[in-house]
Protein backbone atom coordinates (compact mmCIF):
# COMPACT_ATOMS: atom_id res chain seq x y z
CA UNK A 1 0.00 0.00 0.00
CA UNK A 2 2.72 2.51 0.93
CA UNK A 3 4.27 2.24 -2.53
CA UNK A 4 1.23 4.10 -3.89
CA UNK A 5 1.51 7.03 -1.50
CA UNK A 6 2.84 10.39 -2.73
CA UNK A 7 1.60 9.92 -6.30
CA UNK A 8 0.31 13.48 -6.07
CA UNK A 9 2.88 15.95 -4.76
CA UNK A 10 4.36 19.38 -5.39
CA UNK A 11 8.01 20.18 -4.75
CA UNK A 12 10.04 23.21 -5.79
CA UNK A 13 13.76 23.95 -6.02
CA UNK A 14 15.22 27.40 -6.74
CA UNK A 15 18.84 28.48 -7.20
CA UNK A 16 19.70 31.89 -5.76
CA UNK A 17 22.86 33.97 -5.87
CA UNK A 18 23.81 32.81 -2.37
CA UNK A 19 22.35 29.29 -2.21
CA UNK A 20 19.45 26.99 -3.05
CA UNK A 21 15.91 26.90 -1.65
CA UNK A 22 13.57 23.88 -1.53
CA UNK A 23 9.89 23.73 -0.63
CA UNK A 24 7.10 21.15 -0.65
CA UNK A 25 3.65 20.58 0.74
CA UNK A 26 2.96 17.69 3.14
CA UNK A 27 0.04 15.70 1.74
CA UNK A 28 0.48 12.01 0.92
CA UNK A 29 -2.34 10.62 -1.20
CA UNK A 30 -3.60 7.26 -2.41
CA UNK A 31 -6.03 8.01 -5.20
CA UNK A 32 -8.78 10.17 -3.70
CA UNK A 33 -7.69 9.41 -0.13
CA UNK A 34 -5.50 11.78 1.88
CA UNK A 35 -3.38 9.03 3.44
CA UNK A 36 -1.11 11.26 5.53
CA UNK A 37 -0.96 14.97 6.34
CA UNK A 38 2.63 15.13 7.63
CA UNK A 39 4.66 13.51 4.85
CA UNK A 40 8.37 14.33 4.79
CA UNK A 41 9.41 15.25 1.25
CA UNK A 42 12.65 17.18 1.88
CA UNK A 43 15.80 15.42 3.09
CA UNK A 44 19.17 16.72 4.27
CA UNK A 45 21.96 14.55 2.82
CA UNK A 46 24.82 16.46 4.42
CA UNK A 47 25.72 20.05 5.31
CA UNK A 48 25.62 21.23 1.70
CA UNK A 49 23.24 18.90 -0.18
CA UNK A 50 19.44 18.58 0.06
CA UNK A 51 16.96 16.44 -1.90
CA UNK A 52 13.21 16.36 -2.42
CA UNK A 53 11.01 13.43 -3.43
CA UNK A 54 7.82 12.87 -5.37
CA UNK A 55 6.52 9.38 -6.02
CA UNK A 56 6.40 6.05 -4.21
CA UNK A 57 7.24 6.17 -0.51
CA UNK A 58 8.99 2.80 -0.58
CA UNK A 59 11.20 3.70 -3.54
CA UNK A 60 11.87 7.19 -2.18
CA UNK A 61 12.91 5.97 1.27
CA UNK A 62 15.16 3.32 -0.25
CA UNK A 63 16.77 5.85 -2.58
CA UNK A 64 17.38 8.37 0.20
CA UNK A 65 19.07 5.72 2.35
CA UNK A 66 21.40 4.68 -0.46
CA UNK A 67 22.32 8.28 -1.37
CA UNK A 68 22.96 9.13 2.28
CA UNK A 69 25.16 6.06 2.75
CA UNK A 70 27.15 6.58 -0.46
CA UNK A 71 27.79 10.27 0.21
CA UNK A 72 28.89 9.51 3.80
CA UNK A 73 31.15 6.70 2.56
CA UNK A 74 32.74 9.00 -0.01
CA UNK A 75 33.42 11.59 2.67
CA UNK A 76 35.08 9.02 4.96
CA UNK A 77 37.24 7.57 2.18
CA UNK A 78 38.35 10.90 0.73
CA UNK A 79 38.18 13.15 3.78
CA UNK A 80 36.29 15.59 1.61
CA UNK A 81 32.70 16.41 0.68
CA UNK A 82 31.17 15.00 -2.48
CA UNK A 83 30.24 17.76 -4.91
CA UNK A 84 26.60 18.46 -5.73
CA UNK A 85 27.12 17.38 -9.35
CA UNK A 86 28.80 14.13 -8.25
CA UNK A 87 25.93 13.40 -5.85
CA UNK A 88 23.43 14.02 -8.66
CA UNK A 89 25.38 11.72 -10.99
CA UNK A 90 25.49 9.06 -8.27
CA UNK A 91 21.72 9.32 -7.85
CA UNK A 92 21.21 9.05 -11.61
CA UNK A 93 23.33 5.89 -11.73
CA UNK A 94 21.33 4.34 -8.87
CA UNK A 95 18.08 5.07 -10.72
CA UNK A 96 19.45 3.64 -13.99
CA UNK A 97 20.37 0.39 -12.28
CA UNK A 98 16.72 -0.26 -11.40
CA UNK A 99 14.07 2.32 -12.25
CA UNK A 100 12.19 3.57 -9.20
CA UNK A 101 8.84 5.34 -9.17
CA UNK A 102 10.27 8.57 -7.80
CA UNK A 103 11.26 11.98 -9.13
CA UNK A 104 13.99 13.74 -7.21
CA UNK A 105 15.39 17.24 -6.93
CA UNK A 106 18.96 17.41 -5.66
CA UNK A 107 20.85 20.60 -5.02
CA UNK A 108 23.20 22.49 -2.79
CA UNK A 109 26.29 24.64 -2.75
CA UNK A 110 29.97 23.99 -3.52
CA UNK A 111 32.40 26.79 -2.60
CA UNK A 112 29.65 29.42 -2.86
CA UNK A 113 28.43 28.01 -6.19
CA UNK A 114 24.79 26.85 -5.96
CA UNK A 115 23.43 24.20 -8.32
CA UNK A 116 20.20 22.24 -8.73
CA UNK A 117 19.38 19.03 -10.62
CA UNK A 118 16.22 17.16 -11.52
CA UNK A 119 16.36 13.35 -11.75
CA UNK A 120 13.63 11.26 -13.35
CA UNK A 121 12.73 7.62 -12.52
CA UNK A 122 14.94 6.25 -15.31
CA UNK A 123 18.03 8.22 -14.24
CA UNK A 124 17.77 11.23 -16.52
CA UNK A 125 19.62 14.20 -15.01
CA UNK A 126 19.02 17.85 -15.90
CA UNK A 127 20.54 20.97 -14.33
CA UNK A 128 18.33 24.06 -14.16
CA UNK A 129 17.84 27.35 -12.30
CA UNK A 130 14.42 26.41 -10.91
CA UNK A 131 12.43 23.18 -11.05
CA UNK A 132 9.09 21.88 -9.84
CA UNK A 133 7.93 18.25 -9.69
CA UNK A 134 4.68 16.46 -9.02
CA UNK A 135 1.01 16.87 -9.83
CA UNK A 136 0.92 20.54 -8.80
CA UNK A 137 4.03 21.52 -10.77
CA UNK A 138 2.05 23.09 -13.63
CA UNK A 139 0.60 25.66 -11.23
CA UNK A 140 3.89 26.10 -9.36
CA UNK A 141 5.76 26.79 -12.60
CA UNK A 142 3.42 29.70 -13.31
CA UNK A 143 4.64 31.41 -10.13
CA UNK A 144 8.28 30.51 -10.78
CA UNK A 145 8.21 31.80 -14.37
CA UNK A 146 6.65 35.07 -13.24
CA UNK A 147 8.84 35.84 -10.22
CA UNK A 148 12.23 34.15 -10.66
CA UNK A 149 15.38 36.20 -11.23
CA UNK A 150 18.96 34.92 -11.13
CA UNK A 151 19.99 37.64 -8.68
CA UNK A 152 17.51 36.82 -5.91
CA UNK A 153 18.75 35.96 -2.44
CA UNK A 154 17.73 32.84 -0.56
CA UNK A 155 15.36 34.95 1.56
CA UNK A 156 13.63 36.12 -1.61
CA UNK A 157 13.75 32.59 -2.97
CA UNK A 158 11.98 31.28 0.13
CA UNK A 159 9.06 33.64 -0.47
CA UNK A 160 8.83 32.63 -4.14
CA UNK A 161 9.01 28.93 -3.29
CA UNK A 162 6.26 29.21 -0.67
CA UNK A 163 4.12 31.22 -3.11
CA UNK A 164 4.55 28.45 -5.69
CA UNK A 165 3.58 25.69 -3.23
CA UNK A 166 0.65 27.74 -1.92
CA UNK A 167 -0.69 28.28 -5.45
CA UNK A 168 -0.33 24.58 -6.26
CA UNK A 169 -2.09 23.54 -3.04
CA UNK A 170 -5.02 25.79 -3.87
CA UNK A 171 -5.54 24.23 -7.33
CA UNK A 172 -4.17 20.68 -7.07
CA UNK A 173 -6.28 18.30 -4.96
CA UNK A 174 -3.25 16.06 -4.33
CA UNK A 175 -1.20 18.84 -2.71
CA UNK A 176 -1.73 20.54 0.64
CA UNK A 177 -1.64 20.14 4.45
CA UNK A 178 1.18 22.55 5.19
CA UNK A 179 4.70 23.39 4.06
CA UNK A 180 8.25 22.15 4.34
CA UNK A 181 11.01 24.60 3.45
CA UNK A 182 14.80 24.28 3.45
CA UNK A 183 17.66 26.47 2.34
CA UNK A 184 21.31 25.66 1.66
CA UNK A 185 23.92 28.42 1.77
CA UNK A 186 27.50 28.97 2.91
CA UNK A 187 26.39 28.41 6.51
CA UNK A 188 24.98 24.94 5.77
CA UNK A 189 21.45 23.54 5.65
CA UNK A 190 18.54 25.15 7.50
CA UNK A 191 15.11 23.54 7.76
CA UNK A 192 12.71 26.41 8.43
CA UNK A 193 10.41 26.05 11.42
CA UNK A 194 6.68 26.77 11.25
CA UNK A 195 7.16 30.18 12.79
CA UNK A 196 9.40 31.39 9.96
CA UNK A 197 7.16 29.82 7.33
CA UNK A 198 4.10 31.53 8.82
CA UNK A 199 5.91 34.88 8.79
CA UNK A 200 6.38 34.52 5.03
CA UNK A 201 2.79 33.38 4.51
CA UNK A 202 1.53 36.50 6.27
CA UNK A 203 3.35 38.64 3.67
CA UNK A 204 1.85 36.80 0.71
- Give the overall pLDDT as a whole number: 91
* SS-based class: alpha+beta
Radius of gyration: 16 Å
β-strand percent reads 25-35%
Poorly predicted segments: 1-6
User: Approximately how much helix is present in the residues?
Assistant: 25-40%
Order of helices and strands: EEEEEEHHEEEEHHEEH
* CATH-assigned homologous superfamily: Aminohydrolase, N-terminal nucleophile (Ntn) domain
The name CATH uses for the topology is Glutamine Phosphoribosylpyrophosphate, subunit 1, domain 1
Kindly state the number of beta strands: 12
InterPro entries: Ntn_hydrolases_N, Pept_T1A_Psome_bsu_arc, Pept_T1A_subB, Proteasome_bsu_CS, Proteasome_sua/b, Proteasome_suB-type
Main location: cytoplasm
GO biological process, one term: proteasomal protein catabolic process
Active site: 9
Summarize the structure.
Strand 8 (113-119) and strand 9 (125-127) form a beta hairpin.
Describe the structure.
- The chain has one domain: 4-Layer Sandwich (Glutamine Phosphoribosylpyrophosphate, subunit 1, domain 1).
- It starts with 10 loop residues before the first strand and ends with a helix.
- Helix 3 runs antiparallel to helix 4.
- It is an alpha+beta fold.
- The strands form three sheets. It has a five-stranded antiparallel sheet with strand order 10-1-2-11-12, with helices on one face.
- It is globular.
- The longest helix is centred in the N-terminal third of the chain and has 22 residues.
- The chain is about 35% helix and about 30% strand.
- It is built from five helices and twelve strands.
- A hairpin with a 2-residue loop joins strand 1 and strand 2.
- It catalyses: Cleavage of peptide bonds with very broad specificity.
- Belongs to the peptidase T1B family.
- Its EC number is 3.4.25.1.
- This is Proteasome subunit beta.
Amino acid sequence: MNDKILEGTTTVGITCKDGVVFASERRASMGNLVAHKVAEKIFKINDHIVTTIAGSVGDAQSLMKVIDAEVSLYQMRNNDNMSVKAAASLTANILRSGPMYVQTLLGGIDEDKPSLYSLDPAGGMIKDKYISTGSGSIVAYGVLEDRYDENITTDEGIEIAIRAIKAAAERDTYSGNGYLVAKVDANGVEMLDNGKINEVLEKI
